[in-house]
Structure formats: C-alpha cells, structure tokens
Design brief:
By secondary structure, the protein is an alpha/beta fold. Helices cover 45% and strands 12% of the residues. The strands form 3 sheets. Strands 1, 2, 5, 6, 7, 8, 9 and 10 form an 8-stranded mixed sheet that branches. A two-stranded antiparallel sheet has the order 3-4. It has a two-stranded parallel ribbon with strand order 11-12.
Length: 430
C-alpha cells in the first residue's frame, strides 16, 4: 500500500496514564489543520495511534474523560477508590486475591484494557482509513524488538498487537501465535527511527518524559517538531481525574506554543504585540537582571508578567491573554500581602521565632509557600542593609531568578500592606 510520506507522521511515546497528553496534542494539531497521514506509537502511544489512524479522535476524547483504573487492570476492591489506584491499610484484606491473580496470570490481569480497546476500536475502519499505523513491541520469546505496521498485522489481530506493545513490565504478557510480548518501551519508547525507516521526513513527536528507552533521534534531512510535556505531573498510573484533565490540556497548550500560536516560557500567553508596544515599564524594574533563559527576549511586558506569575506560583496550565495573566497575578499578590500582614502581626517573641524559622527555611531550600511570600517576609522583618537580608535575598534569587523583576513589577502595581511590627536589626533576631 502507498502512503503519502509528505504528510506529517505523528510519533507517540509511551507513558501509561500520561498518554492522555497525546489527546491534547492531537486536539491542537486538528485545530491548526496540520495534515497527519501516519500514526506510530509505543505502549499507550500505540493505543492512541490506533484510534487516531482510524479517525476515532472523538471516541478517544470520550474514553479519556471516562477511563478509570478498573478499565485497565483487574484489582481486588480494596485497591481502587473513585476510579483510582488506592494502596493502604484498607487494601490488606485483598492482598491474597491480588497475589493469586498475579500468579495465575503470570502478571497483572489486563483483560479490562483489552475489552476497552476491542469494544471501541473498529479494525475494518482502521484498515480502510488510508492512514499508516505502526507499533513497537518486544518479543519475549527471543528478546528481539518488533516494529510492526498495519499491513503486517493479521486480520483480527490488531488489538493483539496493541496489547503486545502496551504490556508494561509486571502486566500479563500477551501472546501472538504462541510468542509472548512485552511493552515496546523497553526497546524504543519513542519510535522516531521507525518513522524514518518508513520514509517519513516530516515528523511530529509527542514525548511524555516517561520511563523507557528513548533513542536519540537522527534528524538530519528531516523536519522534526518535538513536543514534550513542559510540566512534570502525576506518575505512570495516576488515574486522578483532575490530573488527567490537566495533563490533556497541557498537551494542547504545549503543542500550540510549539507551533507559535501561544508564547511564553513557564506560561501560555496569547501573543499581544499591541500591549507590548504600549507598555511603559516602571524605571524600578531591573530588566538587566533577566533570568538566563530570557536574556535575549525584548518583550518586556511578557518578561515582567512571566517573572511575577512565577514567583507567585500562579496556575500554569491555562491559556492566558496578557490581561488575564495580569489579573491572576494581582489577585495572588493581594492574597499574599494579606497573609504577610497576618503572619507578622504577633508578639516580639513570635517575630524572633518567625525570623529564625524564615532563615532556616530559605537556607534549607524547602518551601511551602511561593517565593514572593518569603521575599516579602525578608523585607518586612529585616533591615535592608543587614547581612541577614542580603544573605537571604541572595539565596532566594539563586533559587528563583525571576524574583528581582517579578517582585519589582508587583511592587509597582500592588500596595504592600503596612506591618505593625518594627523591622529588627540582625543582632536582635539572632
């Protein structure tokens, strides 16, 4: 069969539940009208590649919204709660049943996952779609990898090959014609080389930063667009619905930013040249102290907003306009100012204990609040010229290079709450 290798080939990496990210990537590609003619995947990437090649993207989105841990593996009741894997003292009574199942199946029983795929994937539609499809798996019988395309899969065995590609270590090994198979991520978690050998020279990779062997891509003579999750979230089998929704959205946002439809570093901003041109920064903002990764960026408003949002830990998985991000920053800064005022409204003994704890927290680098909170406490509790103030601010800025610009931008837009407690000298707080 002839495949148009001028279309993009979408290569989807493995990563368990984190594969929900690939759905967000696909949503963005569809929205931008990017032509994709081939879908190759490993492990969960193979599952999603099959649905996309079939043209069942909407069904895939629905499954992504509904999937639970009991759709993937058979577990005793005590090991699951609200659709998530749950391990604790409450699960102890179910351990004998779990061990018995593992022994009898020679691994965790993934029959629910097979049913889920089989009930929702239409093999005939996949074969008639005109799209190229392939998976990577590992033949346990001879410990050799297999890169299998649709035309090499016998009729009625597409689900078998998908299960073979996604048999995570510890899962029951699927068998095809007597041979046992294991997760393809052990050989190549991102089958980029498979796409190149097929002749594709326009390739989009979706990388989940997951466990598995990732081979260095040979990109010479080819257009490669590499999309990778910009935030580490969840773990391989995290079925928490809030995480799944957020990680799918992150796939969409990362893709839109990769293609230039959104801008930013830690945040996702809609380009706004008009606001940039109209921006007149306060002279107090030290743009000469840009974080290293922003040093060549001429967009002063974007730099200021990113720095301010970063030191306040403003929600990142969201598409903001400049105005929306500014509003989120101001709201968070105001709440932080209120918290600072409450914290320092205490006795002299309490303030001394607070400054001691603040010093230990900053120098230890273990934070429970946003960087701006600690920066404001330093400024509220120590004289600016004191050695403690200089040491603590230097330590904070080393860990959070966005602080100088971010704190200055916030100070130019938010009135700092006056504190009743006097600022102590270094000797009084030691």
């Amino acid at each position: 069969m002839y495949y148009n290798t001028e279309d993009y080939c979408l290569v989807l990496g493995g990563g368990g539940a984190k594969g929900i990210y690939h759905i967000g990537v696909w949503q963005a590609l569809q929205e931008m009208g990017i032509p994709v003619g081939a879908f190759l995947g490993t492990s969960i990437g193979a599952v999603i590649a099959a649905f996309l090649a079939q043209g069942a993207g909407k069904s895939l989105e629905r499954l992504g919204q509904e999937i639970r841990v009991d759709h993937v593996i058979n577990l005793p009741a005590g090991f699951k709660k609200d659709g998530e894997l749950s391990i604790g003292l409450h699960a102890l009574p179910g351990i004998p049943d779990l061990f018995s199942s593992i022994i009898s199946n020679r691994g965790l029983d993934t029959e629910p996952f097979r049913r889920l795929i089989g009930n929702n994937l239409d093999e005939d539609a996949l074969r008639k779609s005109g799209k190229d499809f392939g998976v990577v798996t590992l033949d346990v019988t001879n410990m050799k990898p297999r890169e299998v395309f649709l035309e090499d899969m016998e009729n009625g065995k597409v689900v078998d090959y998908i299960m073979a590609s996604s048999a995570f270590p510890g899962f029951k090994n699927p068998k095809i014609d007597g041979a046992a198979f294991m997760d393809g991520g052990i050989y190549d978690n991102i089958p980029y080389a498979m796409a190149r050998k097929r002749g594709y020279r326009r390739i989009i990779v979706s990388d989940l930063s997951a466990l598995g062997r990732t081979r260095k891509p040979q990109i010479d003579g080819c257009i490669t667009i590499y999309i990778k999750n910009s935030i580490d979230m969840g773990w391989t089998f995290d079925m928490n619905r809030e995480f799944l929704n957020a990680f799918m959205l992150l796939g969409y946002l990362d893709t839109m930013r990769t293609f230039g439809r959104l801008v930013g570093y830690s945040y996702f901003l809609k380009p706004d040249e008009e606001s940039e041109n109209a921006y007149t920064p306060s002279p107090s903002i030290p743009f000469g102290k840009k974080p290293h990764y922003m040093r060549y960026d001429k967009r002063k408003l974007l730099v200021a907003l990113e720095c301010a949002a970063s030191i306040l830990n403003v929600e990142r998985v969201h598409a903001y306009s400049y105005g929306e991000l500014e509003a989120a920053i101001l709201k968070s800064a105001s709440a932080t100012e209120d918290k600072i005022a409450r914290v320092v409204d205490t006795s002299r003994e309490g303030i001394i204990a607070l400054t001691k704890g603040l010093r230990e927290t900053i120098l230890g680098g273990v934070f429970t609040e946003c960087p701006y909170y600690y920066d404001r406490l330093v400024r509220a509790l120590f004289q600016p010229s004191s050695s403690s103030s200089r040491i603590l601010k230097k330590a904070l800025e080393k860990l959070n290079p966005e602080l100088p610009i971010g704190a200055a931008w916030i100070a130019s837009h938010v009135s700092e709450r006056p504190v009743a407690t006097p600022v102590f000298s270094t000797k009084e707080t030691e």
